[in-house]
Amino acid sequence: DQQVKQNSPSLSVQEGRISILNCDYTNSMFDYFLWYKKYPAEGPTFLISISSIKDKNEDGRFTVFLNKSAKHLSLHIVPSQPGDSAVYFCAASASGAGSYQLTFGKGTKLSVIP
Amino acid sequence: DAGVTQSPTHLIKTRGQQVTLRCSPKSGHDTVSWYQQALGQGPQFIFQYYEEEERQRGNFPDRFSGHQFPNYSSELNVNALLLGDSALYLCASSLPGQGYGYTFGSGTRLTVV
Is pLDDT of B97 > 80? Predict the structure, then answer.
């Protein structure tokens, strides 16, 4: 039973346009959400996070939106750059329940076309 | 500043054998977690070590065990290897007492034949 789902295995976007990556979750105990970026032959790199008490968090070109009622979050990248091409993982934690583990989705491969 | 260091980077083992993977956390980090990433999947939590003890464990059999040393480095041991254990094993470290603000290593690619 997948508790974090990224339903789009891949996404192609033109350079300069907006990239929107989506993530759905089923566990109501999740209260902290993170996005990681992964290049081939490297470990995942933390990108941005959001607590369940917020609905938006921004960091430069990256913005994460959280819709708790829909159990949905999205990552917006504006403008997209070729260096953004990577696999993006959505992850969730139930920190309020004393859990330290991250539950990851399967990832979305983003290709930014110059 | 060295990040998370994992060794070896690749190894091949035969079914039924045992394997030990090693991890040195980022400087200043005292918590180490291990994740298994199978092909086409997201990382799956194996366990987390803090203060030399297993603090939390994911849904993995007892064949998977670990250890944390006084210098915060860690080992992951897998006994009686199965073909399905073939995966990328990721180590992640985090700040004192913080459970999930991870820095990941590049991983160890284990192939079981």
Answer: no
Q: What is the rounded CA–CA span in Å between residue B23 and residue B37?
A: 16
**Which residues are A36's β-sheet partners?**
A46, A89
Using alpha carbons only, how large is chain B's radius of gyration in Å? 13
For B58, phi and psi rounded to 5 degrees?
-90, -170
Q: How far is B79 from chain A (nearest CA, A)?
A: 23
- Report strand pairing: A86-93 vs A108-113: antiparallel
3-state helix, strand, coil in chain A (%, to 5): 5, 55, 40
pLDDT digits (tens, 9 = 90+) for B33-44: 999 999 999 999
Kindly list the residues from chain B whose CB atom is less than 8 angstroms away from the CB atom of residue A103: 45
Contacts of B107 in chain A (CB under 8 A): 43
- Residues with Cβ within 8 Å of residue A92, at least 6 apart in sequence: A3, A4, A25, A27, A30, A32, A33, A34, A102, A103
* Interface with chain A: mutation pick from B59, B93, B95, B100, highest number of A CBs within 10 Å: B100
